[in-house]
Amino acid sequence: MRLMRKSFSLVEVLVASVILATVLGGLLATFITVRKYVTRSNKRQVSMNLDRGGLNRLFVAVRADEWGPPGAGNLSTAIAPSADEITVIDNLTYTGNYTVLPVPGNDYRQVIFNVTHEPDAL
Predict the structure, then answer these.
(1) CB atoms within 10 A of CB 36
(2) Distance, CA of 65 to CA of 85 (rounded, Å)
(3) What residue spans define the domains of the chain?
(4) pLDDT tens per residue, range 58-115
């Protein structure tokens, strides 16, 4: 009587290897994509925190009774946009500035605070 061997053929091993490589490649691509999204999210979070800090500094420095006519006070609409504030966090450079605009028909000002960061490395 002939004994049957319980093993895999070369073709079966090659097919299993190709399937495994495809699955692992897909998982690796997923991890790389998720890492890019997390990095981008971290940059946005730092930018928002820098925005909040800049606006808090302005809030402390400005009182409505100091506004006066345009051209007077800390949040004058006649002043040029602020000089760039440069902050380096985790070897990334963030640049922030603000612009003060009048609000037509109202006695308050609109402040636009903008923070930019280096583009993502490829």
Answers:
(1) 11
(2) 27
(3) 10-117
(4) 776 666 655 555 544 555 544 445 667 778 888 888 888 877 777 888 777 777 888 8
CA 30 to chain centre: 20
Q: pTM higher than 0.85, yes or no?
A: no
Q: How far apart are CA 81 and CA 19, in angstroms?
A: 59
Instruction: Write down the residue that tokens 């308050």 correspond to.
Output: 108
Q: 99 near 84, Cβ under 8 Å?
A: no
Handedness of CA 69, 73, 74, 80 (dihedral sign): positive
Beta strands in the chain (DSSP E): 85-89, 92-102, 109-117
**CB within 8 Å of 50: residues ≥ 6 apart:** 87, 94, 96, 115
Find the Cα–Cα–Cα–Cα dihedral 26, 28, 33, 37, rounded to 10°. 140
Q: Which helix (H) or strand (E) holds 109?
A: strand 109-117
Neighbours of 9 (CB within 10 A): 8
Q: Is 101 helix (H, G, I), strand (E, B) or coil?
A: strand
Residue whose structure tokens are 């006519």: 69
